[in-house]
Input
Amino acid sequence: MTSFVKESGGGRWQAAHGDGRPMVEASNVHKRFGSLEVLRGIDLVVQRGEVACLVGPSGSGKTTLLRCINHLEQITGGRLYVDGELMGYEERGEKLHELRPREAARQRRDIGMVFQHFNLFPHMTVLENVIEAPTRVKGQSKEQATKTGRDLLARVGLADKAKVYPLQLSGGQQQRVAIARALAMQPKLMLFDEPTSALDPELVGEVLDAMKQLAKDGMTMVVVTHEMGFAREVADQLVFMDGGVVVERGNPREVLANPQHERTKAFLSKVL
Amino acid sequence: MIVLGLLALFVYGAATNVDYHWDTYRQYLFDKRISLGSWVTLQLTFWAMVIGIVLGVVLAVMRMTSNPVLKSVAWVYLWIFRGTPVFVQLVFWGLFSSLYAHVQFGIPWGPTFVHLDLQHLNALFFFACLGLGLNEAAYMAEIVRAGISSVGEGQTEAATALGMSWGLSMRRIVLPQAMRVIIPPTGNEVISMLKTTALVIALPLSNDLYNAQNNISGVIFRPVPLLLVAATWYLAMTSVLMIGQYFLEKRFARGSSRRLTDRQLRAQMDVMRRDESAGG
Output
């Protein structure tokens, strides 16, 4: 896999103004669907250039937390900041007011998201998928977006697939296109929602490789995953969630080798 | 074989039966009133479908928003226009000009922007299009709604996550995919509309194909050959529409097949060859 870094020296994805402010900062985040409380007071800090892996049994709220970060879900309590900006809300006095759709959309432009089921646009070719948002949302010229798009496709090893439709690709290839599509918006943060869970086992590696390369290039990433090998190798922070709370967190090697909490132990004994 | 045999017998019987008056059929097949009537029928169909599709999309979107006012307005519209016969609606539109002689668009007690004299003759054609179109919109709304619901939630989510607004994702992502589901029943609707235009006699408007044919046969007392003339024209127009539908379906089926087209294969080969020559 070729490098995501064009210029030597790395840090292509690192924001220029790294002033020590964390990229993601959640404090006491609650999320309630009707009477069901899915998130019950989550605290999370992800620094710039850091990779955080969220793990835990299904129903633990990790995907919901991820979707709250780019405001695909509205939080019902607490505060959630991305790059110092309150996500989806405006704070006036003591009260939170939901942002107008246009403002929320502007916030999302800088956050890339990769879904479990890829969610590529099937009626567009691979290249059209990649240049759609840069041209329509950011107003880039088609030539420029195409150039960047072809670059990104080459970096995920799919230069020859530009004219192909998503359904004509394997799952692993589709997910790599989805990564390229998200990167085309030049995000400062990438969210991955179980990016390899829908893939055949032999296709998982190619997607993880692309993600590892991205992490190596300094992209800030929050990854919901069941791939403990990936977490051990790439993550700076492992967050184990269960029942809507963070049960345990820390250096992935330490947490995986020596879990402190009973629930973590029980979960890890099943997946490792 | 049996079916073909029976069909041949029927055609032979019809061709030799003098009561079909094939000479009258030939005489009127290209009669000017008939071809003009076909033209009127086509125009009615076109405008009614334009109104029906545009308003249908609006109604479908209204029904799918979370806004309770828009939702119930759309629901009431569907309830009324699907729940009453189109013939009755057309009679009503015919009487509309005796209910309201003038229509003015403007600010009440202020300036008027548009002034329509509804008792003008052309108004009948306008009301025919409007009446058929408004009725059609109720049916199109359901077709469009089915199409929109057929597009997975993940599509809107992906578009939203990329920073697209609701309108943009509707226009660029959801509707183009919904078209695959929308087009076949819409083709049905167009063909059905072509024939429903005969009902404009309710207004009364009588220069469309069916009523033109009816006027002639009323004078010469030979309904069978003239009905066959009209049927021939309807069939011809429907055939053209079906060809149009075929190409539309092909256009919107892009990306729905796993098989690579020759052009795609060639493009892939080109890239691979370029890579090889660059590497070597």
